[in-house]
Amino acid sequence: MNKNYSIAIAISVGLSLTSCKSFLDEVPESNRITTTFYQTRLDFYNALMGGYAGLKLPGVYASGSGALMVLEEIASDNTEFGATRQSSNNSFFEINDLFFTKSNTAIQDAWRDHYIAIGRLNPIIEKLPGATLTPSLTQAEKDRFDGEARFLRALYYFNLVRLYGEVQLITAPVNGIYATADVPRSPKEEVYKVIINDLTIAYNVLPATIPATEAGRASRWAARALLGKVYLQMKDYASALPVLQDVNVNSGRSLMASFPTVFAANTSYAANTEYIFAVQYKSGLLAQGASAVGSSGGVGVTQGSDIWSNWAPVGSGFMLGPNGGGGGGFNTPTADLASAFEPNDPRKNASLLESYPTSSTVMAPGRYAVKFRQQGALNADADVDFPILRFADVVLMYAEALNELGQTSAAVAQLNRIRTRVSLPAKPLSLNQADTKQAIEQERRVELAFENQRWPDLIRSGRYVDVMRAKGFTIQPFQNLYPVPQRETDLNAKLSQNPGY
């Protein structure tokens, strides 16, 4: 997708708020935040871009190898870690083997980085009401900043509550590094109340459409779609149904005519009718303070994505081309996923392939994901976005809510919209409720592969343990949640641990 440069630059600025003056000339960081920052439109804008930048932290989506991809794809029957096992990647293999430990780095990173991102957003929400209106900081602008901050905070908390269950509920700015050292975990119901309230406010104040010059910022329909997903996760189908119907009918979003076009490099932001909210990447744009060539001779830190090069098979350098790297083997599709696609389903070859070239004439066997295939000029610097909310997901969630409320024929009709797009036979409207439920789950698996949906779907259906056991894994029911990281419980005696760990 084409993007504008300004949001990537703004993200860099938002992460680099200190000046180049000498240390003695600077206001202490803690005082700057509480007394001299959060006053002007630029202050709030830069802080908000730091909240968006949280999406790219290692414990969140982080290009091609973020912790969420480990915990929500590799922990499922969709993908596995295809690199050579060694001490440096042991944590990924632990998740691959469904061996969840309290010291696992992916589990630790997810907890830590979601709270780092939330910590960037809480001051915005608290300080905006008292900010003085100016010609540049209008009430409408204040409302929008508040809505965006609340949408992001809700997204981060939604990820946390699904991964860990009860979590620390921190909604005010944290002053001091030990300020949360005695905060216990809150019941899931309280966390969900905050999420729902944030998304309701966001829906009421955010713009309906986002221009291409602001690609990556949240719209009211992003808030609405996420709220529908939240209600569905809570099994509150009566609340989910009208919300998802609203997005389905009134958002102006629609299914692209061709499935591969949704992810194609030449599909512009303006032309993509399916992405509702995505993590934005821009190749060729250096992050603040980075050089074009790193100290070891490699590429410097950029705003690009390494999804393609990192997910390519190990040893696939010929396919990736000059400066493309050698392939990381991350998020390797399982044989089970490859066989899950129906015959003649074009989504299979648009999502994964099962061999790759090692020379101009030789092909090697090996499964790898191609859904986000896009090669930049350098390794780890592709210009490809990662979808968090997509219209096809909304259609299938709407179908699920309809079916759970007994409106099965209407649910099948929604399911068939997805199947018709890829020229697969429609399911009969007479399908019973149980079979429709399984058909929706199956359709979500092949439609949303590699989009961090499989693990949450299996958890929501209550089938995670049974599905993984049936495929040869040793797993216990308590593993429907991840453990609270050992580092966190060591630092805070009031943090309880999930049962079984």
Q: How is this structure best described in words?
A:
This protein has 501 residues and is mainly alpha-helical. It has three domains: 1-206, Serine Threonine Protein Phosphatase 5, Tetratricopeptide repeat; 307-384, no CATH class; 390-480, Serine Threonine Protein Phosphatase 5, Tetratricopeptide repeat (Alpha Horseshoe), CATH 1.25.40. The protein contains 21 helices and eight strands. It has helices at residues 5-14, 29-36, 41-53, 67-74, 90-96, 105-127, 139-164, 188-205, 220-233, 237-250, 259-263, 307-311, 317-320, 335-340, 347-351, 391-404, 408-421, 433-447, 454-461, 464-470, 486-491; strands at 79-80, 167-168, 185-186, 275-279, 332-333, 352-357, 363-369, 386-390. Strand 6 (352-357) and strand 7 (363-369) form a beta hairpin. Helix 6 (105-127) runs antiparallel to helix 7, helix 7 runs antiparallel to helix 8 (188-205) and helix 17 (408-421) packs parallel to helix 18. The radius of gyration is 22 Å and the shape is globular. Mean pLDDT is 89; it is low at 1-32 and 288-300.
The helix content, as a percent range, equals 40-55%
Strand content: 5-15%
For the record, what CATH class of the largest domain applies? Mainly Alpha
Distance between the ends: 43 Å
What best-fitting shape do the alpha-carbon axes yield?
Answer: globular
Structural class from helices and strands?
mainly alpha
CATH fold-type name of the largest domain = Serine Threonine Protein Phosphatase 5, Tetratricopeptide repeat
Number of helices: 21
Uncertain runs: 1-32, 288-300
Taking strands numbered 1, 2, ... along the chain, how are they ordered across the largest sheet? 1-5
Task: Please give the radius of gyration in angstroms.
Answer: 22 Å
Largest sheet data: 2 strands, antiparallel
* CATH architecture assignment name of the largest domain: Alpha Horseshoe
**Total E-strand runs:** 8
The residue-averaged pLDDT reads 89
Count of the domains: 3
Order of helices and strands: HHHHEHHHEEHHHHEHHEHHEEEHHHHHH
